[in-house]
Amino acid sequence: MKKIFILVLTISMVSCCGKKENKVLAAATEFSLEKNQQEMENIYQFKVKTLSEDDFDFSSLKGKKVMVVNTASKCGLTPQYEDLQKLYDTYKDNNFVIVGFPANNFAKQEPGTNKEIAEFCQLNYGVTFPMMSKISVKGNDMHPIYQFLTQKEKNGLEDSEVTWNFQKYLIDENGHVVKVIDPKTLPTDEAIISWIKG
User: Fold this and answer.
1) What is the pLDDT of residues 163-195, one digit of tens each?
2) Is 121 a residue of the active site?
3) For the residues of 108-136, what is the DSSP string, one character each?
4) Which is more confidently placed, 144 or 20?
5) β-strands 55-57, 65-71 pairing
6) What are 191's strand-pairing partners?
């Protein structure tokens, strides 16, 4: 009986210590994540121009989930504009916004001027989500906002490369990059919708 009691006591002590170690580990991990989030940059620091040359301040999007996507008018993936607009129409009243950045980095598939791009988007897809002035999303002339999106030392998540038109970056309500979505993944993909709703 004595031996059984000692065994139970020993198990209880080990279990207790294990729980303490787990709590310490969890607290350390949480502290590390918080510290990382405090040190990383966020998207609210950026001010850009829209297609109509108006100022656009990303700090106006605080508290919203944001999808940033590089677009092109003459790409096999250009029909994604239709899905992007559907997604925006469905969730724009639920603290969600899409921000498009036309770019001519891939096979010169966005050759137009800002005015031509605006007309194309409106005429063909009825785009109403914010569209920014044409920029470069890779290479030596990469725009600072895409330096932030693609460099772990700035975004705190991961290094990435924009591989083609319509690559998507998901930004949380605090302005932090949380996921990079492949260009061929449709904007209406279940994983994206779950993230918006979550």
Assistant:
1) 999 999 999 999 999 999 999 999 999 999 999
2) no
3) T---S-HHHHHHHHHHHH---S-BBPPB-
4) 144
5) unpaired
6) none
Catalytic residue among 16, 17, 75, 121: 75
Q: State the Cα–Cα distance between residues 157 and 172, nearest whole angstrom.
A: 12
Q: Is 63 left (phi over 0), alpha (psi -120 to 50) or beta?
A: left
Look at residue 40 in the predicted model and tell me its pLDDT: 77
Measure the CA–CA gap between 181 and 161, rounded to whole angstroms.
11
Strand partners for 100: 69, 131
CB-based contacts of 194, cutoff 8 Å, min separation 6: none
Kindly state the percentage of the chain with pLDDT values over 90: 79
| Percent of the chain as helix, strand, coil, to the nearest 5 | 45, 15, 40
For the packed helices 190-197 and 80-91, what is the interaxial angle rounded to 10 degrees? Answer: 20
Which pairing describes strands 55-57 and 168-171: parallel, antiparallel, or unpaired? unpaired
| HSE value, Cβ hemisphere, 13 Å, CA-based, for 191 | 10
The residue count for the chain:
198
pLDDT, tens digit, 9 for 90 and up, residues 53-105: 999 999 999 999 999 999 999 999 999 999 999 999 999 999 999 999 999 99
Q: Has this prediction a pTM greater than 0.90? A: no
